[in-house]
Task: structure prediction
Amino acid sequence: MTIALRLGGIAAAAALGLTACVGGTDTASTSSSQDTAGLPQAIKDAGSLRVGLSPDFPPMEYRDGDKLVGADIELQQKLGEVLGVKIETVESPFDQLINSVQTGRVDMAMSGISDTVERQKTVDFIDYFNSQGRVYTSGARAAEFTKQSDICGKNVAVSGKSDYLGQLKTLSQSLCTDKNLPAINLLSSDSGAAARLQIDQGRADLAAQSAENLAYFAKTEPGKYQPVLDPLPARAFGALVKKGDTQLSNAIKAAFDKIIADGDYQKILDKYGLGYGATTPVINGVKS
Result:
């Protein structure tokens, strides 16, 4: 996930009176399983797993008043239960999360972070969710877009700092110009929220944003926006740990495998409208 994409979530949370408290700590109690066998000794001794996050990306993680909520938050709580430790959340700005892992301020970061080959040079990922980008429009106009080529010649707003801009450029060529149809007119914006505003004000026919944000809007503003056309290429979100810490990586992956087998993983994703992103956990799964 890029910083620009998260800005759309920040704006959405702010609109609902939600706040993010940087540097705060919350501790969640765990069940009595106490299965710490696979964890590094320092985490066993502490009895807690410090997890870095930036609660500004609904519905993955955000604040509802003073309470941390979201799919990632509930998944972390389940990981703690399986591992037999408390989850201690350490909040920080999104762009500082990787550094927090590298410097040992946290044991793990899990906050809608995309696994990339470049990031794998400095941290290891346990991929646990497939994020999608979606092209969407207002609910009132959704019926206008029934086939892929309907996007050709249309004004499409997208954050200029996001991966979606490049994906839409590729789509414009493969769907449109290579088939002698008019190119997509891309309207670059500063954030997902700014792109959404272009639809609201009638300057854009469509916009592109994460399916996660759109799932959140579907609950908070039902019917206002509607995804159309096929999803953009998926990107893996991962929980990340210090590079080379194979003991912790394997323990986290095994815990994910357990909550999947128990059915808790799918229940949590479905609760937040994110069932489409279910995947099999893998360590450093992105190869290009």
Notes: The CA atoms of residues 53 and 111 lie 5 Å apart. The chain has nine helices and 15 strands.
